[in-house]
């Protein structure tokens, strides 16, 4: 959903408003601290049952944004509401039944000396649920794993199977929201497709609201209803997935598309390449953060703050986009 489109007046399942998060970094033993704004005035809304793709290159603030969404990290400013309740004042027992993460590397989140039965059942045991064994069996079935794997250890499973275990564990408390932070990036391409299809069918079957974080636009194309593109902490474009793929307005989004999709002469999307300069998270100028790499850059881009504005079917943070 585009910001402000409001979901027919009902409050969205996820609402992030004007989130800002700065990290303070020490440079050298005696040097003063330097500030890095990882998330800069980010607002997002996701309607119930929808999937938001959150996209951008490494370091643009995606993980920081979703950690704040999950209530695992405190923002400097701004507010997160899940199902109309503020995340920072929500009791943990309520939060874990409402919103759950699936991370990139299941190896890091699955204790190698515990059996799958124990790992998947653990959240339910911790939060006082009943019929743990039966629920674990149901969850394994839901994510397409044979129940005999309940007795296995994570090291006996393939990468794709381990990610299915992580998804089963995230779902056992029956959350309404699933936050997937690069859940397929560590997997082979063929296994990536299986996990994406699994997430798609779970979304339909369980009515889940999802946020799917990726650096790769092609990966979110099949999953997301709408996509927000981030660059150096800012949302620089947001649109329904079809509109973004057909008619992206921001030069950065167009460059991402050119980098991830095969060239299509019919598509009418001129190929746009990123300049050689890397994104500088310490840049402090007022204007567009992408300007140093932008092929369409003018002096005003560096001087004038860029606001999100409507351009055909997308919201775009670029005064020169046409
Ligand atoms: N704990 C931290 N302390 C200091 N800086 C941090 C910390 N976590 C992240 N950063 C910095 O904040 C910025 C945003 O990082 P973040 O991990 O949120 O981005 P990302 O888009 O998720 O990248 P990636 O895909 O590589 O994880 C980066 O410049 C990163 O170096």
From TrEMBL:
GO terms for biological process: peptide transport; transmembrane transport. It is found in: Cell inner membrane. GO terms for molecular function: ATP binding; ATP hydrolysis activity. InterPro entries: AAA+_ATPase (IPR003593), ABC_transp_ATP-bind (IPR050319), ABC_transporter-like_ATP-bd (IPR003439), ABC_transporter-like_CS (IPR017871), Oligopep_ABC_C (IPR013563), P-loop_NTPase (IPR027417). Keywords: ATP-binding, Nucleotide-binding, Transport. Coiled coil: none annotated. CDD domains: ABC_NikE_OppD_transporters. Residues 14-257 form the ABC transporter domain. Signal peptide: none annotated. Transmembrane segments: none annotated. GO terms for cellular component: plasma membrane. It is a peripheral membrane protein. Belongs to the ABC transporter superfamily. This is ABC transporter ATP-binding protein.
């Amino acid at each position: 959903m585009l910001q402000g489109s409001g979901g027919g007046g009902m409050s969205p399942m996820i609402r992030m408003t004007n989130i800002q998060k700065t990290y303070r970094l020490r440079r050298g033993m005696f040097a003063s601290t330097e500030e890095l704004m990882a998330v800069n005035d980010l607002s997002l809304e996701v309607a119930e049952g929808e999937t938001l793709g959150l996209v951008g290159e490494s370091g643009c603030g995606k993980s920081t944004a979703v950690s704040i969404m999950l209530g695992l990290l405190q923002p400097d400013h701004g507010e997160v509401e899940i199902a109309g309740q503020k995340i920072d004042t929500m009791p943990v027992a309520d939060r874990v039944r409402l919103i759950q993460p699936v991370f990139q590397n299941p190896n890091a989140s699955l204790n190698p000396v515990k059996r799958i039965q124990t790992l998947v059942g653990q959240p339910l045991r911790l939060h006082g649920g009943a019929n743990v064994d039966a629920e674990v069996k149901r969850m394994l079935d839901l994510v397409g794993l044979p129940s005999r794997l309940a007795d296995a250890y994570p090291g006996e499973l393939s990468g794709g199977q381990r990610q299915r275990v992580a998804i089963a564990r995230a779902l056992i408390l029956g959350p309404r929201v699933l936050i997937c932070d690069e859940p397929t990036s560590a997997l082979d391409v063929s296994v990536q497709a299986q996990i994406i299809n699994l997430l798609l069918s779970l979304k339909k079957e369980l009515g889940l609201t999802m946020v799917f974080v990726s650096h790769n636009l092609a990966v979110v194309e099949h999953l997301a209803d709408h996509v927000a593109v981030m660059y150096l902490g800012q949302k620089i474009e947001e649109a329904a997935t079809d509109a973004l793929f057909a008619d992206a307005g921001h030069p950065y989004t167009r460059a991402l598309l050119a980098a991830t999709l095969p060239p299509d002469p019919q598509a009418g999307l001129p190929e746009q390449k990123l300049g050689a300069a890397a994104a500088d998270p310490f840049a402090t100028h007022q204007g567009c953060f992408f300007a140093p790499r932008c092929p369409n850059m003018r002096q005003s881009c560096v001087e004038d703050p860029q606001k999100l504005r409507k351009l055909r079917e997308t919201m775009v943070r670029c005064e020169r986009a046409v």
